[in-house]
Each structure stands twice: as structure tokens, then as C-alpha cells.
Amino acid sequence: MQFVEANGAKIPQLGLGTWELRGALCTRLVEQALRLGYRHLDSAQVYDNEREVGEGLRAAGIARSEVFITTKVWWTRFAAGDLERSAEESVRRLKVDAVDLLLLHWPNSSVPLEETIGALNAAKERGLTQHIGVSNFTVALLDQAVKLSRAKLVTDQIECHSYLDQSKVIAACKRHGLAVTAYSPIAKGAATRDKTLARIGHTHKKSAAQVCLRYLVQQGIVVIPRTSRLERLSENAEIFDFELSAGEMAAIRALASPKGRTISPSWSPAWD
């Protein structure tokens, strides 16, 4: 397993995203992923699956200290007391002493960022999480959050794949020493049907999805692909045994377009 180090955190570069995974399927996928060597699990309060993620961890029999667990506070719970209660509930549902990383899931302009970042720091100081960070933050919001936080933020989790140019946010993360964590790194499956990625994959005896993931990890980005199919877990993990050439990286980078974003709900910030 490879790691990305950022502001004191050592984050496994490959994680299992669990958005939309529920019930017994979620537990089984988490258990199997850990048995295959995954050491990073990504959940969120709003996913309504923290309990199942915890059950999968225990079923796998892997020591808690070996697994990096991320969860997120939903944007409607950003007021000081409510954010801390949310973190307490997450830890209780997961049945762990603390999570490794607690994120603000989306920006919320209706609660002062100073209050929210203060509450996030308080959750860390209380021992509910080892590290803190943000998700879906733009460059301007990231700059503000870093300035307001007493503790170092360690990541901005963003939609990131070959069809979306996130170079501005990636540069801001690098400037502040943060890791970039890519959710939807296969663009909701669009990468599996891409002719350019398939052509490059053929050269390396890899699938288009593996090429899409490799494109990100080769840039030092953490990836958390989600799958509901057990057989995909192994495929998504086999991305560290080949390297894309500079020409191949450029060809993949050229796939990005202004319309490449796949997730932009009504509460989204004004994207960079």
C-alpha cells in the first residue's frame, strides 16, 4: 500500500468509497476490501452506512490501528454544538474510539466559516478525530479555512477525474501542504467506456478504469473509488504496478472539459 503524507497525516492512497452502499452489501464490500489489502475507508453521516462500515471492519479482523477511517459532517450540522454532536454520533455508529479524519462535507454559507472551523477543531481537541479537513471547498474557501484553523487541515476531498480540470484546487492544496482526495475518480463509470483510456490500457494490459485511477495516483492524489461489485475491488487495487508515460498523461489530461463535472447539487459553491 502506498501513502500520501500531508500535514502530519499518513493517508493510504487507495481507499474504498462507500456512497450509496447500504446494509449487508456495504458490510460485505468493506470486509472484502480490507481482506484484499485496502486500508482506507471513506464514509459520511449522510451516507447512512457508518454502522455497516464499522461492522465490515470488525468482520475483516484487521486491527483498528491499521485502517484509516474517514467520515464527514453534513453541511446542515455546521453550527458549533451540532457539529460536535454529529462527530460523536459518527464515532458511536462506527463503534471506534475516534476516526482518523473528519471532514466538512460541503461548504455552508449560512453558518460563519469561523464558527464551523472552530467546531471542527474542537472535535479534534476532544479526541473524536485524529485529523481534520474539508470537502468540496473552492480555492477561496480553502484559503479561508486554512487561515481560520488552529490545527493543520490535511485534505480537500473533491470530485476529480480525467474529465474535470481541477488544477486550481490541486495547486491550492499543494500550496497549503494538503493532500487531494478524489471522489468519483472513475467519473461514475464514464471512464470504463472511454476509447482513449482503453487504448492506453491495452498498452499496459490494464482496463480503462485502472488507467483513469493510475492517472490520479501518479499525480500523488488519493483515490476512493466506489463499487457495488466485489470483483471490481481487486481491479481497482491493481494500479500500482505500472506507470503512464508523459505522453499518455498528456492525452488523458486533454480529456477534461468545462462540462466534465458530474456532481453539482443546488447547495454547491461557485466552482473554480
Structure report:
The chain has 272 residues and is of the alpha/beta class. It has one domain (3-187, 220-227): TIM Barrel. 40% of the residues lie in helices and 17% in strands. The strands form 2 sheets. Strands 3-4-5-6-7-8-9-10 form an 8-stranded parallel sheet. β8, α6 (167-176) and β9 form a beta-alpha-beta unit. The longest helix has 15 residues, at 80-94. The radius of gyration is 18 Å and the shape is globular. The mean pLDDT is 97.
What would you call the quaternary organization?
single chain
Counting helices, strands and paired strands, the structural category is alpha/beta
For the report, how would you describe the main beta sheet? 8 strands, parallel
The gyration radius over C-alpha positions equals 18 Å
Strand order of the largest sheet: 3-4-5-6-7-8-9-10
* Secondary-structure arrangement, i.e. CATH architecture: Alpha-Beta Barrel
- The name CATH uses for the topology is TIM Barrel
N→C terminal distance: 32 Å
State the CATH class: Alpha Beta
In percent, how helical is the residue content? 40-55%
Tell me the fraction of residues in β-strands, as a range.
15-25%
Number of strands: 10
- Please provide the ordered H/E string of secondary-structure elements: EEEHEHEHEHEHEHEHHEHH
Name the shape in a single word: globular
